[in-house]
Design a protein that fits this description.
The protein has about 90 residues and is mainly alpha-helical. Helix content is about 60%, strand content about 5%. The mean pLDDT is about 80. The structure holds zinc ion.
Length: about 90
Amino acid sequence: MKIYGRLDCPSALRAIKRGPTYARYRVFFADEASAIAAGFRPCGVCMRAAYEKWKAAKQKNNLRHDQTPNNPPTNRTKKAKEIPGQKS
Ligand SMILES: [Zn+2]
């Protein structure tokens, strides 16, 4: 998962202690905007405010996405009727 946060983030320091994998994939950004542009999300531990904002925006996007195809029960019924000879 791509997460950006502060250099002294307790969560990041824990990950560094756990093993070399995290440190190897650690990247540094000049500012928040470039981190977001690179597809990173704010850290929920040290960037709480930014994280909540990111989460709210993501949920809004998900809702909009769900509304487009919609009505899965209707689709399922229609599909079942289209299959000949299938009775449940
Ligand atoms: Zn953090």
